[in-house]
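Q: Please design a sequence for this.
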């Protein structure tokens, strides 16, 4: 049984309403690779902003500050979304939980799962992430998808 990063279960798992004998078996975030594209975009904006700050013209300095601020905002948003998205596997269901102000939880009962599939690109195989399909629920960018697949198969049988 795995726990959250602080040794206990996350607040998402603790606040969820479980059935009487349901126990949390896994509570995990998506793989950090989901941050690569937004961070690259933010880095580009910050670099353009710094370049604009070097131009000796007042409007360019304002534009540079705006670009740097936008880069910081994009980074904050991406990290916040990554932090607030979790996969929780219990003895009865698999949940995908995301959102902050508007929390969404998608769930699949393990008893209704016929098959569990893993889809990994070459990069995903190298970096250890992939998409796991549990019945109608598709969860992308899962760290160590084979472990999740084995856990779900074991619990579903």
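A: Design:
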């Amino acid at each position: 049984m795995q726990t959250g990063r602080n040794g206990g279960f996350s607040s998402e798992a603790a606040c969820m309403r479980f059935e009487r004998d349901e126990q949390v078996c896994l509570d995990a975030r998506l793989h950090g690779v989901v941050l690569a594209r937004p961070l690259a975009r933010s880095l580009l904006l910050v670099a353009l902003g710094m370049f604009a700050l070097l131009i000796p013209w007042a409007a360019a300095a304002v534009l540079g500050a705006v670009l740097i601020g936008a880069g910081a905002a994009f980074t904050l948003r991406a990290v916040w979304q990554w932090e607030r998205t979790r996969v929780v596997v219990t003895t009865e269901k698999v949940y995908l939980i995301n959102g902050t102000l508007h929390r969404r939880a998608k769930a699949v009962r393990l008893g209704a799962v016929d098959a569990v599939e893993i889809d990994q690109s070459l990069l995903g195989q190298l970096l250890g992430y992939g998409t796991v399909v549990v019945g109608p629920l598709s969860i992308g960018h899962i760290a160590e998808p084979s472990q999740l697949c084995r856990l779900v198969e074991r619990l579903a049988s």
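Q: Thanks. Anything notable?
A: Residues 1-8 have pLDDT under 50 and may be disordered. The helical segments are 11-15, 36-54, 58-83, 122-127, 145-156.
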